[in-house]
Amino acid sequence: MRTALAIAFKDWSLSSRTSSTRPRLDGNNANRRMFASIQSTIRSGRDSKSAAAASSRIEREPRRKEYTPLVLKSVDEIIAQLTDSGKRGEHSTDQIKQNLEASSSTLAEMWDEEWAKLVEVLVKMCLVSDEAVFVVELLPICMKYADFLEAFRERMIAVASAFVLGEQAGGERRQEQVPAFLGSMLCARWPRGMHRDTLESNPILFTAIEIVRGWILVVQDSNEGGAKKSEETTELLNRCSSALAALCESQQRSLWLSRPELVDDMYKCFKRAITHNLEIDGDIKCSLLHSYMLMTEWTRSKAVTSKCSTTQTASR
Fold first, then answer.
1. What is the rounded distance in angstroms from the CA atom of residue 112 to the CA atom of residue 172?
2. pLDDT tens digits for 113-124?
3. Which residues make Cβ contacts (< 8 Å) with residue 241, sequence separation at least 6?
4. Looking at CB atoms within 10 Å, which of 135, 202, 232, 291 has the fewest?
5. Residue 156, pLDDT above cutoff 80
6. d(CA 179, CA 134)
7. Region of 192 on the Ramachandran plot (φ > 0 left; ψ -120 to 50 alpha; else beta)
8. How far is 312 from 88, CA to CA, in rounded Å?
9. Which residues have a Cβ under 8 Å from the Cβ of 87 and sit 6 or more positions away?
10. Per-residue pLDDT reduced to its tens digit, 274-290
């Protein structure tokens, strides 16, 4: 009896010691561990899914092929590249520029007649097809050649003179296209080394500004009053005034941001023309007044910058 009690007591003491040495889990700790385990499982699932999706996207994305520029071997091929709708649709603007760069040997060997032919096409694209923005992007490539600069400047002066003298031919050309053509050059983002309006830095930009300053000078001289002007002089005055107003309308605030000094001269000229000049037609004075009011809006910090220009450049 005693032996049985001793053995039972010994077993009870060992079991009590064993149970006392076991760690007691708190309910909160157990919940936390379970929650952490669930989170790690969810995260591993998400990471595997995102990695699989990323790899599938990489596999699906087609590799972009490097473009190999075309070498244009004649002025006719260059003109076809710019004007043929089929060929234009096959190339973006950047690719057309690369093609011209690759055709430097052809451009360097062109005769005066060939440059004149190319310039005529470019000017027609600006005045008839409303593609002045596209043409201006191509000008820096061609401006490396002195013959092109001479031909293009001469054509600019001829077109501007014919416009203010009322000699423009063809009903396709709208009245505002010549000022918008010049405005595209005034507001273009010229590459480094061509952004200054000097004859040495950028002869084309210099010529465009000189043409506009010539229009301003005609209006300023008339603002001083004096003897009554002849009919031809009055017509020239009205055309120059209309051209200046159309220039402001086509380029909007971009004109002030790009050429602030020129806009300041126009602002002073418009103010006196509106209040003192009796030779300017009423409708044209309204246009000048509208442009004058626009200029006051341009100097505000929250003014909207916009330009009334279009391009038909095809790209892929």
1. 28
2. 999 999 999 999
3. 215, 219, 273, 280, 284, 285, 287, 288
4. 232
5. yes
6. 16
7. beta
8. 10
9. 80, 81
10. 998 889 999 999 999 99
